[in-house]
Amino acid sequence: MDSPASTTTNSSNAFAGPTPSATAIRDLNIEARVPVRLDSSNSSYYAWMTYFSLVFREYYLTEHIDGSINGEYMKGDPEWSAIEATLIRWFYQTISKDIFHTVVVEDDGACAVWNKINALFTDNKLQRLVFLQQEFFSCHQDDSTIDDYCMRLKMLVDELHDIGVKVCDELMLSTLTAGLNENFDNAASNLTLLPEPTFQTVVVYLKLEERRMKKVKERV
Predict the structure, then answer these.
(1) What distance in Å separates the CA atoms of residue 97 and residue 100, rounded to the nearest whole number?
(2) Is residue 50 located within the same domain as residue 115?
(3) 4, 170, 176, 186, 187 from 139: Cα distances, Å
(4) How confident is the model at residue 101 (pLDDT cuts 50, 70, 90)?
(5) pLDDT reported for residue 83
(6) Which domain holds residue 167?
(7) CA–CA gap between residue 57 and residue 162 (Å, rounded)
(8) Do 9 and 19 touch, CB atoms closer than 8 A?
(9) What is the tally of structural domains in the chain?
(10) Are residues 210 and 136 in the same domain?
(11) How confident is the model at residue 3 (pLDDT cuts 50, 70, 90)?
């Protein structure tokens, strides 16, 4: 089982706080820590970025990717360089082939690779905003299950979050309700009776209602 990186002091590097052990970082199972493969064809960016952000905080690696330390200056530090190589390997291991070929450049530091990958999903904000809003407000259940429908909505909300647009619970609920198919007309009316409904509680309610309707059909 992976254990948190041991900390050391090293007067030759510029870390202000604890410095991670290159050996401990190298031996981490990154697929277990970041169980997501980043792909431009799906909505995996928010999860990928969130998992990596937790790893950076847990193992004192933030300075390697936030630009606060001059990577060129630190190249002479063996521990720093070893951790840089591990971080870059992690990034390449958890992205799709098309993203890899888009961002890979020889001699890039971890900060440069991290920023390039993130830029693929956060640049062109206006165009992405227009597209995602259209997708969000036109999202309907049609013949899909409640699980699939709600997941599509949540993934669109996550993509909007990636470009700095927060969708409140009230808007998520109204969009969810408006897009339900006609089989859920009664359930949609009953949603007003739920005390302080949230997206999560409404999803649970609708899934239970879906199960109930399925049982009724089976008895007919």
Answers:
(1) 5
(2) yes
(3) 42, 16, 8, 20, 18
(4) very high
(5) 95
(6) 125-219
(7) 19
(8) yes
(9) 2
(10) yes
(11) very low
